[in-house]
Amino acid sequence: MAIDNEIEVKETSRLGGDQSVGLVETQTWTFEAPLPLDCGRTLSPVTQAYETYGALNAARDNAIIIFHALSGDAHMAGYHTPEDRKPGWWDIMVGPGKPFDTDRYYLICANVIGGCKGSTGPASVDPNTGKPYGLSFPVVTVGDMVRAQKRLVEHLGIERLLAVGGGSMGGMLALDWAVRYPDAVASVLAIATSARLNAQGIAFNEVGRQAIMADPDWRGGDYYGRTPPSAGLAIARMVGHITYLSDHQMRAKFGRRLQNRRAFGYDFETEFQVESYLKYQGDSFVRRFDANSYLYITKAIDYFDLANGHHSLVMALERIQAEFLVVSFSSDWLFPTSAAKEIVKALQANGVPTTYLDIHNPYGHDAFLLPNEELGRTVSGFLANVHRQVRKDAL
Amino acid sequence: MAIDNEIEVKETSRLGGDQSVGLVETQTWTFEAPLPLDCGRTLSPVTQAYETYGALNAARDNAIIIFHALSGDAHMAGYHTPEDRKPGWWDIMVGPGKPFDTDRYYLICANVIGGCKGSTGPASVDPNTGKPYGLSFPVVTVGDMVRAQKRLVEHLGIERLLAVGGGSMGGMLALDWAVRYPDAVASVLAIATSARLNAQGIAFNEVGRQAIMADPDWRGGDYYGRTPPSAGLAIARMVGHITYLSDHQMRAKFGRRLQNRRAFGYDFETEFQVESYLKYQGDSFVRRFDANSYLYITKAIDYFDLANGHHSLVMALERIQAEFLVVSFSSDWLFPTSAAKEIVKALQANGVPTTYLDIHNPYGHDAFLLPNEELGRTVSGFLANVHRQVRKDAL
Question: Which of B104, B108, B221, B227 has the fewest beta carbons closer than 10 A?
Answer without folding.
Answer: B227
